[in-house]
Amino acid sequence: MSIKYEVLKRLVKALGLKNAWSGKSAEEIVARKKIENEKNRIPRLNDPEFEIIKTKIMGCPVIKMIHKKKVSRANLFIIGGGMVSAPRPGSIKKALKFAKETGVDLYVPYYPLCTEHPITKAYAMIHETYKRMLRHYKAEDISVLGTSSGGNLALGMVPYINDGHGDTPMPGYILTISPGTCVDTDEEWQRMLELDQKDIIIPAQYMKTAEEIMKHGDDNVPDYMIWLQKGDFTNCPKVTFMYGSDETLYACAPSFEKKMKEFGVDYEMIVGDGMLHCYPVFPIVKEAKEGWDQMIGLVKNA
User: Fold this and answer.
1) What is the value of pTM for the model shown?
2) How far apart are CA 130 and CA 62, in angstroms?
3) I need a surface site. Which of 55, 153, 241, 250 has the fewest CB within 10 A?
4) What pLDDT, in 10s, does the model give residues 144-167?
């Protein structure tokens, strides 16, 4: 590890990001995030290479970053936030950087959050956004990238299509970064508790609380939306997983590998040694920059 990365880890730990989630009830987390989201704003972006459009799908904003020089490929870019936080302005600016470097058009949805709705609403809106994209791009030319809870929604598009939406073709490629699924087995939970000693961002206990948050009082939420490793991955396109080895969510990686093998999915598992949660999208140190470049290459060449 570089000295800069060690300094970054100490800084993140000092900021107490993990403490913001530790020991809090679902009600406390939702109440705090509602206040934070009210202060959040969609940034105004300008770039000579892009037509940047804000539209609405199912009443939710979607930022479209369309190359003025026509391209044939697009990416559905799903930003995480524990299903309780809307994308921050810095994340949207980073999405534009991603669009420039990959050379693909980008759709960034502000999907319904579990501060107000069960996770079923987010799945429905993401699916509708993807269907809108299919009007302009072939399915095989659409990749999907998601980070954290967004990674859960990205990969979850497959079981969602298999759950009564079979008239929708699968996307061409999925890149899921630190997908935020809940633990399903005692084995996963024990692995998560061990990783909790290393993780400086997401406490293991939150992934128990997240079950209640994502259901938002609805006991009819399909299991795969809470525990993605229970999903039906029939006809799943190629998937790349990216994890940091020192994050709690890495505990579910073996379950995903087992599921991919069960359904014969062409998949790849990339693990950043000693890296933290969603490290590729925080390219401020050498190790994370390498993850960013790898992420760009994967989508560019998908």
Assistant:
1) 0.95
2) 11
3) 55
4) 999 999 999 999 999 999 999 999
